[in-house]
Amino acid sequence: MKIAVLGTGMVGRAHAIRLVELGNDVTIGTKNVAKTLSVTNPDQMGNPPFSLWHKDHSQIKLMTFADAVKDADLVFEALHGSAVLNVLKPLESFLTGKILIDISNGMPPTLFVANTDSLGEQIQRALPKTKVIKTFNTVNAIIQVNPQLLANGDHDIFLSGNDAGAKADVNKLLQSYGWKNIIDLGDITTARGTEMMMPFWLRIFSSLKTPMFNYKIVMK
Amino acid sequence: MKIAVLGTGMVGRAHAIRLVELGNDVTIGTKNVAKTLSVTNPDQMGNPPFSLWHKDHSQIKLMTFADAVKDADLVFEALHGSAVLNVLKPLESFLTGKILIDISNGMPPTLFVANTDSLGEQIQRALPKTKVIKTFNTVNAIIQVNPQLLANGDHDIFLSGNDAGAKADVNKLLQSYGWKNIIDLGDITTARGTEMMMPFWLRIFSSLKTPMFNYKIVMK
């Protein structure tokens, strides 16, 4: 499958690698290719610059957002929450009819949308003909793409979206990543629930001193 | 121990029963005793009126908020989120130096305080000389008081509060209820994390069709 990953940060990179491993043809989209490649310093989090990472993953082509999305069958969006709508809206025609997997959260430690709205819903309203699926946003990038690293994969991931067919496709993709426990929360408004987990995630992270954890829903 | 439980709803009742089982001297506080006892219809959730419940639990005295709190060693607050501050502020002098366990959440499905503040913090600011501990608010009342009902108690409860001694006391109380996995999230500002779980809890409830679930943090 031809898959475009929008975003050159650690989340985008992790998915790009995993999707290639799984046999997909993957491109990464960015605003300005030359500018992205010109960065030579680590980012604020200490992650290596994209150009350095790209040397080891040169089969993944870096393109503008539009070029990456144009020919893609499926699009991942792993952008900063504050940039998402500005990036996606101009791509509307290229995204029509396609599945867009939205991984973005608000800007830690504070969400700029919560309670009565969510980023997932904002994206779905901005792109009414795109099948927006919110998932992955409750766990760190390493576990997102390799759930088996934790407790043999016996922990949960959540899905929100309006289109049942798109959710079935994303469910299969999650399974190909190794996800065993996939909970469909309902339509895209349920993204409010998972987006509002981020402040909790940060406090657990701070208490446990590791980002390598996830939630398991224990039922009677 | 003399314990006052503020609130006559299902959460207050569940804790009152459990605290009596554990050998405590328990009173329930309400705004207007005569009015609370005069209700003869079930509430909006279909719960029996307090007077009917009280017939089976007459050893638990019903008092005004002030009378209940005055002589208590420890106070539980299980009020509607919107009523909490109005009820507690006039009780300030009676609550000085005491532990107040705050179980309240915003009004489902929407929180009226989130992100940059929390009910727990609002209460702590309103009662600076009270040791406010936020806990229990991530799970339903039945599991709050009997965690063993679910997966032999192998799931998690969270604590937020500024006073280390008070947290140690509440930790013991949680253990006496049967809680085995107690995660200290830090100071009272971490209540933002657990209060913002409520919108997620509601979506899981809706997806699983049962309120009998809880979270377990799975770590590497």
Layout of helices and strands, plus pairs?
The structure is a homodimer.
Chain A: E1 2-6, H1 10-21, E2 25-30, H2 33-38, H3 50-55, E3 61-64, H4 65-70, E4 74-77, H5 84-88, H6 92-95, E5 99-102, H7 119-126, E6 131-134, H8 141-145, E7 156-161, H9 164-177, E8 181-186, H10 191-195, H11 198-208, E9 213-219
Parallel strand pairs in A: 1-2, 1-4, 2-3, 4-5, 5-6, 7-8
Antiparallel strand pairs in A: 6-7
Structure description:
2 copies of one chain form a homodimer. Chain A has one domain (2-208): NAD(P)-binding Rossmann-like Domain (Rossmann fold). The first copy, chain A, has an 8-stranded mixed beta sheet, sandwiched between helices. Chain A is built from 11 helices and 9 strands. In chain A, strand 1, helix 1 and strand 2 form a beta-alpha-beta unit. The model of chain A has no long low-confidence stretch (mean pLDDT 95). With 220 residues, chain A is of the alpha/beta class. Chain A is 37% helix and 21% strand. The first copy, chain A, has helices at residues 10-21, 33-38, 50-55, 65-70, 84-88, 92-95, 119-126, 141-145, 164-177, 191-195, 198-208; strands at residues 2-6, 25-30, 61-64, 74-77, 99-102, 131-134, 156-161, 181-186, 213-219. The interface between A and B is large, with 39 and 39 residues. Strand 9 of chain A pairs antiparallel with strand 9 (213-219) of chain B, so a sheet runs across the interface.
